[in-house]
Recover the amino acids of this structure.
């Protein structure tokens, strides 16, 4: 198939070169929007039909929000951008020599410029066999799986008569003390202590044991030590058992081994490592240790100035430190790639990318957060208010903003979790359907 | 296991006989709530953790509402009812002689009174082989499957280059012109004509062909003919192709045969028949043709005055007409069974059940509905306002009411469908991932 595709409803094809963008996450979407009005035709390819606001995925997993509250159809985001179209397809391989992308369904499409924004997947640090026992949070399906496991664990504990097994059902281990792990642990503790209160007859959900394990010596290791200490204090106050400086040596159906010490827990959640998307491998460019593509200062490939890599898939250093794998870096990278393409069409030389750190935030519980801002570290209620507004601001879609605000307001007043639906097939570990004896 | 189960947190067991309720739908939940404060212990058993407001399921299928907006955890509904507990389990068999219920996981539980409110499943009128091609709407999973198929069909049409196949992807056949079929067809037409407008580049979603097929000579056959005619007129005005007096003779991967005439359509939805839950068979009581249990006037079984059947699973005539399988009949039946049990404990004889018809409603489109009320038939905007308030009133949960109202208000103003998420595995028919050639 040609790079020039037939245009909608018989109108003439959009002029200019064809820019293909792989991935509708923060980086890909920012690139597409930054090309609005440019003399190019844009095709954004994603295997999902929605852009996902990953920073709030833990709230879907812990039944605070609905899946669609933090997702927006990519088509809708780009609806009014005349030079853009959306293709629901999964990328199979990229042929940078012939400038074509092949899809897993056999189709292929050519490009003049390519922006690869395929993001990252979770990494089990060489122990992929742990994945079935310790799901992680990257997609909507992951979040619904985690939600199902957590809710089913309480149901199983309610029915279980053996006290040791009951305790194991009420034990939740979260591996990884970064922002996702901290937010997950805090949210789980809130749910157990408040939202589920009074609903069971044979267990007290508030006695659930929530353990947060971090290999380094403090939680939120990328934040200043003062905020790590505050986060730890807040978590402990909420009843979370915080274990730092401990590494997971094995995970199985019944629990985890932490540096040789055994912890029985039927629910283990993985919030520890990420690994770049395997799409990077087909670019033929050098990769770093975690599979990320080593890009040039303008985010293009060393041999291919027409191919850019942005977001979590790009490996880049700035002032001697790696650019972090956060939404802001992806958004800024996507915009930069778009501006290099626009500039090139006007004959301007490519400028190097510069990441501007706007700070980091992590919510810990109801009205508690830590904020590491460029010239300010804050914690507590003020940090939480900042957290709320930043997340609402960056959430895409008017409807999503209204609904998330409504649900947060309801939850703040009632302590309730509305999205407590167990759907889909029974949890894969599924012991709750076994005989009770 | 004993009928008397251990009580929560070591408190003494609740006094009185054990009432087991099978099913957390309208009938079962109404029965449980009507036993609040009675000197009995209640166990409500459901294989799902949530009560589902089925009348709005079509809005989940057509991406107007989120799954959890119309569902409420059963535990939460009964949280403050001290004499009730909830068991997440699937019923295997009922032994009315020994007064025990066995669960599919091997557990069993005795009862003194049993209220069976297991509802109905869809029926393919002897053609179960049609089910994979024509999913129906009974559970949240069904609704999400239908949503996925509908959204994927538009995506597939956008990519397809063969005009005939493109047209088949843009053809949607709904089998069954009762309230569910009418509401589904209207909602689908709205979505195609408004919500998806401008989002595709190679198709015009407004040109989707939506066909509603009904075997009898009018849609909404249980409503007065005048309202049927109005519903048809409204549907036609919205662009729905209404075909009455036509029967489906076969359904396959590519379309349907309607009395010998072929219609190519890649998406077929089933809204035609219901069949009683197979649980009725294990009661040993006589069943009617559709598998419903023939109950005595007080809703108990002929040989077992301690066993009641309520809702869609009960077959009952009143004034020469069958009591309809609607939410109101289930709610009233559940309350009646509870009152017979309460009366029996006080020595009062069982009174016969009388269904009080409160009317029927069906929404057709935006601000259009028909209402068959006891002394009044209305249609149009006023009927739609009644429809909105009745549905909000009967929806369970404060949060659900707030969120559904918010979303309806947003949708009324913007025409948007917020819940347009394709999740889960690709559609089973999945041709959209095949090669494009």
């Amino acid at each position: 198939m040609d790079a020039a595709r037939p245009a909608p409803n018989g109108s003439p094809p959009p002029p200019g070169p064809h820019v293909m963008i792989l991935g509708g996450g923060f980086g890909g979407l920012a690139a597409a929007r930054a090309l609005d009005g440019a003399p190019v035709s844009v095709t954004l390819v994603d295997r999902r039909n929605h852009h996902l606001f990953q920073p709030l995925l833990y709230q879907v997993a812990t039944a605070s929000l609905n899946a669609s509250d933090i997702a927006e159809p990519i088509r809708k985001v780009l609806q009014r951008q005349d030079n853009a179209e959306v293709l629901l397809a999964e990328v199979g391989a990229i042929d940078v020599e012939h400038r074509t992308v092949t899809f897993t369904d056999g189709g292929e499409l050519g490009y003049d410029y390519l922006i690869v924004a395929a993001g990252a997947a979770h990494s089990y640090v060489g122990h992929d066999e742990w994945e079935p026992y310790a799901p992680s949070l990257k997609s909507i399906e992951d979040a619904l799986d985690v939600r199902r496991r957590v809710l089913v664990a309480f149901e199983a504990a309610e029915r279980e008569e053996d006290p040791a097994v009951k305790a194991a059902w009420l034990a939740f281990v979260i591996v990884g003390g970064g922002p996702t792990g901290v937010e997950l642990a805090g949210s789980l503790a809130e749910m157990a202590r408040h939202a589920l209160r009074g609903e069971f007859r044979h267990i007290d959900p508030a006695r659930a044991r929530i353990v947060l394990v971090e290999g380094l010596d403090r939680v939120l290791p990328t934040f200043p030590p003062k905020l790590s200490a505050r986060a730890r204090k807040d978590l402990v106050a909420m009843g979370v058992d915080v274990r730092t400086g401990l590494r997971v040596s094995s995970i199985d159906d019944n629990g985890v081994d932490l540096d040789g010490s055994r912890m029985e827990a039927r629910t283990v959640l993985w919030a520890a490592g990420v690994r770049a998307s395997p799409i990077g491998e087909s670019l033929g460019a050098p990769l770093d240790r975690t599979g990320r593509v080593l890009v040039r200062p303008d985010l293009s490939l060393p041999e291919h100035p027409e191919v850019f890599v942005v977001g979590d898939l790009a490996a880049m250093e700035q002032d001697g430190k790696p650019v972090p794998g956060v939404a802001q870096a992806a958004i800024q990278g996507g915009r930069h790639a778009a501006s290099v393409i626009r500039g090139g069409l006007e004959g301007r030389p490519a400028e190097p990318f510069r990441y501007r750190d706007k700070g980091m935030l992590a919510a810990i519980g109801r009205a508690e957060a830590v904020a590491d801002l460029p010239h300010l570290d804050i914690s507590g209620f003020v940090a939480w208010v900042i957290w709320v507004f930043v997340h609402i601001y960056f959430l895409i879609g008017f409807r999503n903003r209204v609904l998330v605000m409504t649900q947060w307001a309801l939850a703040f007043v009632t302590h309730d979790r509305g999205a407590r639906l167990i759907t889909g097939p029974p949890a894969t570990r599924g012991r709750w359907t076994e005989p009770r004896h």
Observations:
- Residues 1-12, 426-437 of chain A have pLDDT under 50 and may be disordered.
